[in-house]
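User: Hey, quick favor. My workstation is busy. Could you predict this chain's structure for me?
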Amino acid sequence: MSVAPRGRIASRSFKIHFVHAHPLGTTSARPAPEIHLYRHRLRVTDLDHLGYVGSVRLLDYLQEAQVAMLDPRRERVFRTKGPTYLIAKHNVSYVRRLAFRDHPVEVETVVGRIGTSDVVVNSRLRDERAVYARCRTIWVACILPEGSTRRLDDEERARLTRFSGTIDELPAAH
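Assistant: No problem, here it is.
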């Protein structure tokens, strides 16, 4: 599916990968040619005592989307032995409260930088009206159980390069 970026009229189109969940600042200056889009349906059990989705649950949504982009076949992320990825750092900005709704929210994810053994991943949790959270995560490729870092292989680099770039900002919500 090709769509124009929100808030701007552009002559080029974007490819967006849709991944449906079970019911339940960047380093690149150019817009990403493909944005990984992960839809997540809210659950009543995700609400805090004030009726909003809790910050820990928002981070879970962001992590699930990043895992779906990094390792779509779940071959490496959930391993206890061999090549895998570990989170070295999260930087999350909670922009506004997310109240329960019937329609899903979306997590847009792009790769900000691909290093020798690490990947900077930028995500934002949003709906059609507003952004609720932004996240910058550093994932490190490693080998378990030793915990030693490893180089990203050519297949990983090719997959991640597709999503390399920035996400255009949404216009301010009314």
